Each structure stands twice: as C-alpha cells, then as structure tokens.
Automatic annotation (TrEMBL):
Record-given protein name: ABC transporter ATP-binding protein
Any matching Pfam family: ABC_membrane
Domain spans labelled ABC transporter: 339-574
Signal sequence segment: none
Transmembrane segments annotated in the record for this chain: 21-44, 64-86, 133-156, 162-180, 275-293
The ABC transmembrane type-1 domain, residue ranges: 23-305
Organism the protein comes from: Streptomyces kaempferi
Membrane topology, from the record: Multi-pass membrane protein
Gene Ontology molecular function terms on file: ATP binding
Keyword annotations: ATP-binding, Membrane, Nucleotide-binding, Transmembrane, Transmembrane helix
Protein's cellular compartments: Cell membrane
Amino acid sequence: MREVRAAFARFWPLTRGDRAWLVLIVGCVVVAALAETAAILLFARLTDHALAAGSLAAFWGPAGAWLGVAAIGAAVGYLGNSLAVWTAERFVLRLRAGVFRHVQDLPPDFFQRHRRGDLVERLTGDVEAIEQMVVSGAVGTVSAVFSAVFYAAAALWLRWDLALVTFVLAPLLLVAARHFSGRIGQAAKEERTADGAITSVVEESLGNMVLTQAYNRRYAEDLRLDREARAWMRASVRGARASEMYEQVVEVVETLCVLVVIGLGAWEISQGRMSLGRLLAFAAFLGYLYPPIRSLGGLGLTLTAATAGAERIQEVLDTEPAVTEPAEPVPAWPVRGRVHFQGASFRYPGAERDSLRDVTFTAGPGELVIVTGPSGAGKSTLSRLLTRFYDPTAGVIRLDGVPLPDMSLEFLRENVALLPQETLILRGTIRENIECGRPGASRADIEGAARDAAAHDFVSALPDGYDTRIAPGTATLSGGQLQRVAIARAMLRAAPVLVLDEPTAGLDSIAARRVVRPLRRLMAGRTTIMITHDLSLAPDADRILVVDGGRLLEAGTHDELLARGCAYARLAMPESGSPVTRSA
Ligand SMILES: Nc1ncnc2c1ncn2[C@@H]1O[C@H](COP(=O)(O)OP(=O)(O)OP(=O)(O)O)[C@@H](O)[C@H]1O
C-alpha cells in the first residue's frame, strides 16, 4: 500500500485544474447513492402498505415517489459518470503529454539502454494504468465509501441489531482483499514488463525483416516472441486466477451474510417483531451494501495492479535530462560561428573510461575542420557535445566565446545544424521534410534549398513532386537522394555552424560523389565540423584533427600532416601509397 500512496502522491498534482470537476463528480455520486437509498425505503413502504395490505390506493403515492427518485438518480448518475470519463481522459492526455515531453529531453544513452518497444508500452499502456489509479481510483473510492455509509445507515435505521450482526462479517471481505493484493500486484508487474518485451520483440523484428528473411531467422524470431508471450501468459493467468479466487471467496462470505440475515429475519417475523417489507428492504440494503465494500477491496487490488504501471512511468520521469537550460540564458546575438573546445573531456554515464580526453581546438567562422580517426575514436561524441546532447565532464566548449550551457538550447540548435550519420526522415511529404529545417519557410525558399542540394531535379521528376510522401525506411528515394533531402533541410536552416557526421557513409562512390557538390555549397561561408573517414575533402580543409582513443593526436592542414608522416599520413595514404589529392 506504501507504493500505491507514493504513486498517488506523485501523480495527483496532475489533476490540478480538474479538481472542481472531481468535487462535482463526487456530488453526483453522493446524490445517486441517496436516490438509491430512498428507492429501497420506498420499496419497503410499498411492500408493507400496498402489497401486504392488498391496497391499490396505497400503491400510487410510493410508486410515484419511487419513479421520481429513480429518474433523479438516473440523470445524476449519467452526469457523474460522463464527467468522470471526461476528467479521466483529460488526465491521461496531460500525463501522456508530460511523459512524452520529458522523454524528448532525454540523452541518447537513455534510448540505447531502453528497448524502443518497452518505451512505447510505457507511453501507452502504463499511462492508462495510472489513470485507473488516480482518477478512477479516487472517484471509485469516494463513491464506494459514500454508498457504503448510506446503505449501512439505512440498514441501522431499519434494524440496528440485525445490521450490527451483518457488519461483523463485512471486514472479512477486506481481509480477503488484503490477502490477494500482493499476488495480483506481483502478477501485474510481470505482465506490464512482459507487455513491454512483446512490443519490443515485434518492433525489432519488423524493423529487421531483411535480416530475418535473408538469414532464415524466422524460427529464432518466433522463439523470441514465444518466450516473451509465454512470460506474459503466465503472469496474466496468475493474476486472473488470484482475482477470480478473490471474487469467489467474496461470494461465499456474502452468501453467509445473507443466510444469517434471512435466518434472523425469519425468527423475528415469527415473533411478530418485524414485517416482511422491512425484512426485504433490509436484505436489499445488504445487497447494496456489499458491492461497495467489495469494490473497496477490489479497488485495493486494482490500485496495486496500476502501481506496477505507475512505477514504470516514474522510472522514466526520474531519469534526468543530461543537459539543463540555463536559468538566465545569454540574450540572442548574431552568431559568427567561432567554435572553441577547451580541454573538453567526456565520459558516458555508466561508462568505465572517457570517450574524449582533454580535446582543445578552434574552428574560426567559415572554416572547414575535418575530424577523422579510427572507428570508436570519439568523433561522434565530439558532435554530441557541440550540439549539447551532453555537457563535457571537464573543460568547456564555446560558441563565439560564450560557453554553450549559458545559451538556451533552442538558440544553440538554431545556430548549430547537425547532419547526422543516419538520414533522419519524418513521416510526411518531401516538402515537409525540408521545411522542418526552418518551419514556415516559403515554397520558393524550400525549392531553392532543394536546388542547392541537387535534389530539385529528382524531386520534380516524381509524379507527386514535393508532395510525395516519404517515411523512415522509405523505398521511394535512394540513400543518396534521401541524404540530399537532408542536406536541403540543413541548407534551409542556414545555421552559421554545421556539424556533418559521416555525410557520405552508407553511400556508394557514385552517390557519395553526387552529394559532395551540394555539401560544398552547404558548407560555403559556414563553420563546418565534418566528421568523416572519407578524406576526399581533406585537402580543402582549414584544419584536420586526428582523434584516437578519445585524444586529439594531430592537428594541422592536409599538407602539414602529410609532411609529418604520422597518424594522418597513414590514414590518408592507402596501401598504394598515393596520397589523397585536392579534389575538383
Ligand atoms: N552511450 C554510450 N555509453 C557508453 N559508451 C559509449 C556510448 N556511446 C559511445 N560510447 C563509446 O564512446 C567511444 C566513442 O564513440 P563514438 O561514437 O564517438 O566513436 P566514433 O569515433 O564516432 O566511431 P565511428 O567512426 O565508428 O562512428 C566508443 O568507445 C564507444 O563505445
């Protein structure tokens, strides 16, 4: 129960803004319970005065009142339930948006540590589980408590002694609920986890269909899904069994109570101390009293199950973003594009060694700096620091002399455009894909950027032109064409600093050659930090940095470094011995 309270305290603040509605819902619940109580009392009157006395005249009064009370109860019940659903869904909307916003601020290593399918499940199924706990849970508890109090008061009013006898048995229901909640909670936790694992396996498998088919991995994939699905099935069956057992125990306890009442009632009637109408009304109150008590017990179980989802969401919310916004960001200025790394070191969270160590270099406005080195040297890490996915663990990085953490993230990313290794494509039209470089850009600007990126011709040749729909993994365009769409997007962004991470990786030599010219146009007049193994542009670079093992081994121009004959010369001169020459 401690977990339930903790989770409730964590998410209850999200109901702010809807609390007045919650009060109104509770009001409706109370009126509906009162109407139900009045209806049962009217039923007792009807039985004693109209049925037992055989008088039709005595029928109309209570019957009319009963109908009126039932109509009020129905109207208020409808209003309360509709409002409850509306409030609950608003809560889900707000919570999902909040978690999603938080996830979007998390660093790349978070997404490497968590399987995508599991995160999807947290943002969908688990969010709904919290709703059950906070809104439905709160409304359900209040409703059950009020109903139980009214019916109990009415039962006491009818026959306090009989009522007390039956109340003695009621706590048995709560004991049973307590007994089963642990089992159901554990099963729910396993079920939520298995749900996440199933979504992950399906998602990974669909994304990897070529590998599955080409390497005959269907059986292995089937096994993977089967393993997770069986874990889910076991947890699900265990949870359902515990719930069912709880239901049946409750049935037996209730039957016991009803039999005790009928037995005592029969004795009372035989002694002439009770009318049949009163006994029936009394039994009816019991019939009404037990469901709220039962649902209070059941609510405990639902809440325990919902806590499993809540804990998974809390885990996401408790993950801190790797970088924070400055409290008072430096006001925006026209960026010239001077980038300065000063003694920058970085270690990934949880890693055992630094991925970058004491890196110092400068890229002046309009300069091209090429960063090269073997795989795993720390080159992409450098681009992640410059675009502030992470802050260096030591040292400082400046843009025009201003430390990156002193400016707003939005300003930094407006001025430092990243063209990452993988071509990032949004689901939408080609025009939308280019436009996201500068939202609101005119048609002419978008097409101008596409022209500069050598994309206009092939886009125009498509039947739907710029309105052709593409998506991640699209087959409509080739890798090189997609890369040129990405270059057009970066062109449109017109940021003074460009970070290109392996812009020609994954392209064959012809496609790679095709993107070089647009890349040159993109780089013109901008500070460009290009991370690459492909040294064809190296002779044009103002500086080349050779990184290995996280350290900056060498820095200089192509000619200087070749003349030095060390690491760069080995990278630049293939076995044939012919060095890379200045490209046309
Ligand atoms: N999220 C992470 N957690 C821990 N270590 C990481 C993480 N990401 C990268 N690394 C490690 O940091 C080092 C540098 O990685 P980085 O991606 O910067 O290399 P790279 O030079 O860009 O390699 P490549 O040319 O293959 O892309 C590598 O040893 C890598 O294993």
